[in-house]
Write a structure and sequence with these properties.
Layout (H helix, E strand, L loop, with lengths): L2 H13 L7 E4 L5 H9 L6 E4 L2 H9 L13 E6 L3 E2 L5 E2 L6 H9 L1 E6 L23 H8 L9 H11 L1
Parallel strand pairs: 1-2, 1-3, 3-6
Antiparallel strand pairs: 4-5
The structure holds arabinose-5-phosphate.
The site of arabinose-5-phosphate has 16 residues, from loops.
């Protein structure tokens, strides 16, 4: 089975766990991309919130009811991907850049389901660890990580860093 097929199988299995009337947190990434059509195909009456504009747009296009996170205070289930999965259940996430939203939506869920292919389980979590740099407190954050190997890939963060430095 290919990696893409593994993602699809995991996503479809997770979609089967969703029931009528549930509030559902939708994650972000290439595995969640398989979840959205599987979920939409079940034609359930569910309320969703998304961890990224990308997921929100794709879910709406498929006919899923996506609401603002402000309108949902808890989720029956949140389904999301992961970058690494340790044997004890700890994850590294954020490679899809949905950091803050995905933590909030995961924390608000009664059940958090991780969908992933066979490249994701690891013996121990390791670098790289994706970070989100908020402009609020950026100087203090940078001070904490300045001695580590940090690759800044997001232009907004780079701009904010320059603003702080001026
Ligand atoms: C989103 O920020 C991430 O946490 C993703 O869930 C994670 O990177 C897994 O993405 P893939 O399903 O694309 O591997």
């Amino acid at each position: 089975m290919s990696i893409e097929q593994e993602k699809q199988v995991a996503a479809e299995a997770a979609a089967e766990l969703v029931e009528h009337g549930m509030t559902v947190g939708l994650g972000t990434g290439s595995t969640v991309a398989f979840l959205l059509p599987a979920l939409a195909g079940r034609s359930l009456d569910i309320r969703c919130a998304a961890t990224s504009p990308r997921t929100e747009h794709a879910a709406r296009e498929l006919g899923l009811k996506v609401e603002a996170l402000q309108d949902i205070d808890r989720f029956d289930v949140t389904i999301d991907g992961a970058d690494q999965i340790a044997p004890d259940g700890w994850l590294i996430k954020g490679g899809g850049a949905a950091h803050t939203r995905e933590k909030i939506i995961a924390a608000a869920a009664d059940r958090f389901i991780v969908i992933a292919d066979s490249t994701k389980p690891v013996k121990a979590l390791h670098s790289p660890v994706p970070l989100e740099l908020l402009s609020y407190g950026l100087r203090a954050t940078m001070r904490r990580i300045v001695h580590r190997s940090v690759v800044i890939r997001d232009h907004a963060a780079v701009r904010a860093e320059r603003d702080v430095a001026q």
